Amino acid sequence: HDWIESSHASTALSYAHGLSVALQQRRELIGHGGQRHVVAVVGDGSLTGGMAFEALNNLGHSNQRVVIVLNDNGRSYAPTISKLSESLTALRLNTRYLSWRQRLRRLVPHLPSLGRAAYTSVDVMTSVVREMVTPHTFFEMLGVRYVGPVDGHNIEALEHAL
User: Fold this and answer.
1) Range 64-79 burial, b when 16+ CB lie within 10 A, else e
2) Which helix (H) or strand (E) holds 15?
3) With contact defined as beta carbons under 8 Å apart, do 11 and 40 qualify?
4) Chain centre distance of CA 129
5) Do the domain assignments include residue 4?
6) Do 20 and 29 meet the contact criterion of CB atoms below 8 Å apart?
7) DSSP structural state of residue 145
8) Domain boundaries, position 46
9) From residue 146, how far is each of 13, 48, 68, 149 by CA, in Å?
10) What does the pLDDT read at residue 73?
11) From CA 37, how far away is CA 152, in angstroms rounded?
């Protein structure tokens, strides 16, 4: 359940870090077999605030058990203005990347004797291209392990990622 309610989205990661430290000090993380995590669900708009970047930096170097779910839906109460949200939006709307991916996905399954394996390779190749133009390395450089993107409407994939 929600432990914290705040009107400013950029604070969620700092709260999550602090809560994780508090639970560790109370031995609640250890007392649950070391399996308890704090989860912060944040929107892409919340990553435009400096406090979120400070929290990401702290989380990445503290080894706290915090799961960050980034809801990258390109929506916010006000327009998001940042290079991070711009790059996420640019990938979503990049027609060259999208048409290249669609063309490969349409053609590859029909290749003789390669079909299925080649189709899997297309997913790997598109992931590589996507990672070259997304802020994936941004999170990794802060010490935060990045998994994704994951389709939030695909419950099985979401459960697997979490």
Assistant:
1) bbbebbbebeeeeeee
2) helix 12-25
3) no
4) 17
5) no
6) yes
7) -
8) 9-161
9) 15, 18, 9, 9
10) 67
11) 20
β-bridge mates for residue 70, sequence order: 42
pTM beyond 0.85: the answer is no
Supply 2's token pair: 């929600």
Question: What's the pLDDT score for residue 17?
Answer: 93
Extended strands (E) in the chain = 38-43, 66-71
Tokens of 55: 């929290």
Whether residue 1 lies inside any domain: the answer is no
Tell me which residue of 59, 70, 57, 76 sits closest to 17, measured CA to CA. Answer: 59
Name 94's Cβ contacts closer than 8 Å, sequence gap at least 6.
Answer: 133
Long-range CB contact pairs, 97-101, < 8 A, 24+: 97/129, 97/130, 97/133, 100/129, 101/126
With residue 37 as reference, give the H or E element that holds it.
Answer: none
User: How far apart, in Å, are the Cα atoms of 120 and each of 84, 104, 115, 116, 123?
Assistant: 29, 11, 9, 6, 5
Model confidence pLDDT, tens digit, residues 119-145 = 666 666 666 655 555 555 677 778 887
Q: Beta-strand (E) ranges in 13-145?
A: 38-43, 66-71
Specify whether the CB–CB gap between 64 and 39 falls below 8 A.
no
Q: What is the pLDDT of residues 22-39, one digit of tens each?
A: 888 877 655 556 667 788
Tell me: the pLDDT tens digits for 61-88?
Answer: 888 888 888 877 666 665 555 555 566 5
Number of domains composing the chain: 1
